[in-house]
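Input record (one chain):
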Amino acid sequence: MTAANDQVANDAQPLRPSPSEVMTVAASRILEDHKVIFAGIGQPLVAAALARRRQAPNLTVVLEGGMIGIDLMPGELPDSTNEMRAAVGAEMVTSATDIFLLAQRGFFDYGFLGAAQVDMYGNVNTSVIGHHDRPSTRLPGPGGGNDIASLCNQTVIVTNHELRRFVEKVDFVTSPGYLTGGDSRRSAGLRHGGPSWVVTDLACMDFDEETRRMRVRHLQPGVTLAQVRAATGFELLVADEVTTLEPVTEGELSVLHRLTGDLVADPRPDVPTKNVADPRPDVSTKNGALR
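The corresponding structure, as predicted from the sequence alone:
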């Protein structure tokens, strides 16, 4: 076989998802139909949009900027919850104040959080690294993260699995998880909610029902428990049965690339590129299925 034929054969191979795509797909699979998600810009919004186009066509997506029931334009994802692209297809546009009042009343099933640091009880730090008064690094801060962690019926934490992120104790509690474990969250006045899943490029973890410590439930394809432990700065609990997640499918990756606009860079000859003449080639129908 010639070098040119080798190149054609290589181009025809399925693309391998990036670590970020692995996390996005794993997080999207958690979302159930007929639920409400309070999503942030970026990975949480993409995961929600992917879920709507796969297993949860009736998932309602809410943004902090006041948009309720949005329907994203593939390849035109918003950079802020306050720009008009974030309002495409919205069933209602209200104020940020109203959104948080709805959260206080318990209307949001899911909230998604990123994390610069997360500890064994699911407390999240996005404020400072080091001592609060003299930090080595200042981070963006909570935005609505504290409200999401405090008020949503459950939160999903999505972050890369690294020693610097998975620490025994966060330097600052920006968004509360289960605080010091046990019933400490409830005793502090947070009477419901809390983190349900931590999704990373290595594993999916939940929390023990009594101690509220982080527990490994699923491994990403090709990952070992030893790798997960080596990338964690505290002792993880391990479920009685640890399973391996299904690999990202071609269908999931194709829809994901349509949403993010990455089809232009897709080297596979059988995958269509974005239709420049139609800025919304893959806009979903009302029930969320791709046309």
